[in-house]
Amino acid sequence: GPSNSEGTGKVSLLKKVPALKDGDFTLAECTAILLYLSRKYNTPDHWYPSDIQKRARVDEYLSWHHANIRANAPKTMWIKVLIPLFTGQPLPSEKLQEVMEGLSTSLKQFEERFLQDKAFIIGSEISLADLVAIVELMQPVGVGCDIFEDRPRLREWRRRVEDAVGKELFFQAHEMILNIKELSNIQIDPQLKEQLAPVLMKMLK
Hints:
By secondary structure, the protein is mainly alpha-helical. It has helices spanning 6-11, 30-40, 52-67, 69-87, 93-115, 128-142, 152-165, 167-173, 175-178, 190-203, and strands at 19-22, 25-28.
């Protein structure tokens, strides 16, 4: 998301996080950062396969993801926690229902088009596509919208991702998301509220 800190501005021209600084090289956007790191550090081939067709499948999912899963899943967190925190007012329940309906459509496409009967998105091994997907899909879970509960295929895929990553690392990586409701108890500087409330509301339009 957007950041007004001076340090972020020096790393990312877009003044957004996440951002990467590697020596004199800087890079914004999470997907670009993941791909850069996978190439630089010669990661195991299954993360971003050298096979051109398997790699294309990862790229295909990453391209679809932004306009579908990412377009809806994070909004559950904004609606239930972040916007009320910064505005002091809850949003109408209809707004969450609208987002959940959009997310439900995306999840149906995810299962039928990408997951199908495979263990992971591109086949029998986990890839960056699965990591990008699971991080987004844990956000509704963190605010009490368990999207896995009534979707056995999706639930089993999540279990396989947890096992492949390692359960301890998986929950460590998602600790902040799974405890996001605790933010409701913190005090926000009034000036920061004034700055961020319009930005958050705009993100939902």
